[in-house]
Amino acid sequence: MSKTSSADRIREKKKIFLAREQKIIDAALELFLKESIDRVTVSKIAAVAGIGKGTVYKHFLTKNEILARIMLDYERNITNGLAAGIIKAEQGDSGAAAKAYFEARLARPELDRLVQQLEVRLVDSADIADQIEELHQTRRSNEESLSALMTELIGRDVLEDVPPHFHYLACWALAQGAVELCFNRSWHHRTDTPELMEFITSIGVTMGNRGQYHSPAGKKSPK
């Protein structure tokens, strides 16, 4: 019988560690979506995860670190979707990047809204400054990729000839409005939210296509 190597044991321990860490994040997210941020404690998270409070601190030194991880995981999911969409757009499916962005944000509006609340709360927190910088760096990288793609699509006469950031900021604004719509007191009673989000996504995919926008007479779009 072959003995388990030390490398195998290390890999197994790491696998167990990461699985437990994800269990903590899943439990925290479940609680944050149900309760206010301040009411959720590390003790509550540990109880839902089914582990000891001390074990949580082996993974995250503070509650803020758990919150930051939720934000980063969400941003990475958007980034991964965008990256795949940009590749498809470069291959000829011009609306793929926009579609990926809307699908990532509108799949779970309640999660998107939570992440926005967390960012407002944590943006100046010194104990997670590195994580906040990583979040901003990820967004800057996404913006650079989107700007390059928009420039290419404008050059191919697919999109309106306006500054590239007009296009991706318009997508952001539509997605932002869609998320807010889900929690607006006048409209939150609607029971067709998934279908509504699909409809908004379909609009967003073609938004900004060539021929939709007309600048005021005699006025050029700013570059």
Would you write up a description of this structure?
The chain is mainly alpha-helical and 223 residues long. It folds into 2 domains: 12-60, Arc Repressor Mutant, subunit A (Orthogonal Bundle); 63-206, Tetracycline Repressor, domain 2 (Orthogonal Bundle). It has helices at 6-32, 42-49, 53-59, 63-90, 96-106, 109-122, 129-155, 164-183, 193-206. The relative contact order is 0.10.
Task: Give a short overview.
This protein is mostly helical and 223 residues long.
Question: Which short descriptors sum up this protein?
Answer:
about 220 residues; mainly alpha; Arc Repressor Mutant, subunit A; Tetracycline Repressor, domain 2; 2 domains; about 0% strand
Write the layout of secondary structure elements.
Blueprint: H1 6-32, H2 42-49, H3 53-59, H4 63-90, H5 96-106, H6 109-122, H7 129-155, H8 164-183, H9 193-206
